[in-house]
Design brief:
With 383 residues, this protein is mainly β. Among the domains are: 2-38, no CATH class; 136-253, 2 Solenoid (Alkaline Protease, subunit P, domain 1); 292-382, Deoxyuridine 5'-Triphosphate Nucleotidohydrolase, Chain A (Distorted Sandwich). The protein has one helix at 2-20, and strands at residues 23-25, 36-38, 49-50, 69-72, 82-87, 90-95, 136-140, 143-148, 154-156, 161-162, 167-169, 174-175, 181-183, 188-189, 195-197, 202-203, 209-211, 216-217, 223-225, 230-231, 237-239, 244-245, 251-253, 260-262, 273-275, 279-280, 287-288, 290-296, 299-305, 310-316, 328-334, 344-353, 356-363, 369-373, 376-382. The strands form nine sheets. The protein has a ten-stranded mixed sheet, with no helix packed on it. Strands 10-12-14-16-18-20-22 form a seven-stranded parallel sheet, with no helix packed on it. The relative contact order is 0.05.
Length: 383
């Protein structure tokens, strides 16, 4: 009699399934969208517990079907434990669960945060990334926005790419040589250990540095700094807006219209180099404080000076050319139109005060001579 009841029950279930297409356990009204509907207030569905050995383990369960769902218990060498499904020739985790403390390899990330950010707290075992040897991909609106590569590269921005240990940040930034860095939209670092920073900046050889809008380097160890700067000679440097050099071992500051100041924030626009302070020229050169020069037309009144005779002429020093000390060498040269060029020799220039230089003129004509007009170029080298 018992056998008949079992057979009848089985027949009933088969018939039920055939007619309605759903099976309900714990419910007489299985959901129309389901094949199997489980219902219980104090029991759950217990899946098979499998000890996977790796993410690609297809030996423990031979030929797993796509979508196969299991519980990996973590005792076979592959962790963490959790729900896994088989797809793309590997086991993919559905959930790692959360411990009550939120720590360890079984903790998940919460949208409201996990800890206060302590660098030595209990939550520092948490990590964000892949558990296999795969790149960590970032997307925005389901569009590629960057990656942390297995080749130790960092790529942030659409269209970025980076070589071994390279860094590319910004739209279409490219690090095309090992250990190179490209930062800025359309920047390209194409030399080993080179660095390009700024929109459309480009390096082309090893150990180069290009910083600024549209800068370019193309000579090993070269440097270009400033908008539009270009250094294409080996070991060369171009610094400043539009600075450019193709010569090896050259340093160029600014473009053809640049005025360079040292010790001043407003270099003289009539000078290529304006140094406000002491300077030294040459391996054995002395420290120089100032070099000043000016043109002068002093009043002269020398009448009938005998041959070989001498007279003195005072030259007023303009305020802008006055030095702070009397330690200086002075050169006074007659101008081409000085009327005494064939009859008088200029000598012994010296300071009598900060505002006056005195010179001697000697009659070298062999006869008495007069002088009523002076025109001189004066150079003072203060040290």
């Amino acid at each position: 009699m018992k056998k008949k009841i079992v057979s009848f029950s089985a027949l009933f279930l088969i018939s039920f399934s055939t007619v309605y297409g759903q099976v309900g356990i714990g419910t007489t009204t299985p959901d129309q969208s389901s094949i199997l509907h489980l219902n219980s207030t104090n029991k759950g569905l217990l899946l098979t517990s499998i000890a996977l050995t790796s993410s690609t383990d297809n030996i423990t369960i031979p030929s797993p079907a796509a979508g196969l769902l299991i519980w990996n218990n973590g005792t076979g060498g592959f962790s963490p434990a959790g729900l896994y499904y088989w797809d793309n020739a590997k086991w993919n985790i559905l959930s790692t669960g959360n411990t009550t403390t939120g720590i360890g390899t079984t903790s998940g990330w919460n949208t409201t945060g996990n800890n206060s950010g302590s660098s030595s707290g209990a939550g520092t075992a948490m990590s964000l990334g892949t558990s296999t040897f795969d790149d960590l991909i970032f997307k925005v609106n389901n569009t590629y926005a960057g990656r942390l590569g297995t080749n130790n590269s960092v790529q942030l921005g659409t269209g970025t790419s980076a070589s071994q240990s390279g860094t590319a940040v910004g739209q279409n930034a490219k690090s095309t040589s090992n250990e190179s860095t490209a930062v800025g939209a359309n920047s390209t670092a194409a030399g080993f250990q080179s660095a390009a920073f700024g929109y459309n900046s480009k390096t082309n050889s090893n150990s180069e540095t290009a910083i600024g809008y549209n800068t370019v380097t193309n000579g090993q160890n070269s440097t270009a700094l400033g908008s539009g700067a270009s250094a294409t000679g080996q070991n060369s440097s171009a610094i400043g807006y539009g600075a450019a050099t193709t010569q090896a071992n050259a340093i160029v500051l600014g473009n053809s219209g640049a005025n360079i100041g040292i010790g001043t924030n407003s270099p003289n626009t009539s000078a290529k180099l304006d140094v406000n302070g002491q300077f030294k020229l040459g391996e054995k050169g002395s420290i120089i404080k100032n070099i000043v020069s000016f043109e002068t037309w002093p009043g002269v009144s020398i009448y009938n000076l005998s041959a070989g005779g001498s007279a003195e002429i005072d030259i007023a020093v303009p305020a802008a050319a006055q030095i702070s000390s009397g330690r200086a060498s002075i050169v006074v040269s007659p101008a081409g139109d000085f009327p005494g060029n064939s009859t008088f020799a200029v000598s012994n220039p010296r300071y009598t005060s900060a505002s006056n230089i005195r010179i001697n003129v000697t009659n070298i004509s062999g006869a008495a001579a007069s002088l009523y007009y002076g025109h001189f170029f004066v150079t003072v080298n203060e040290f």
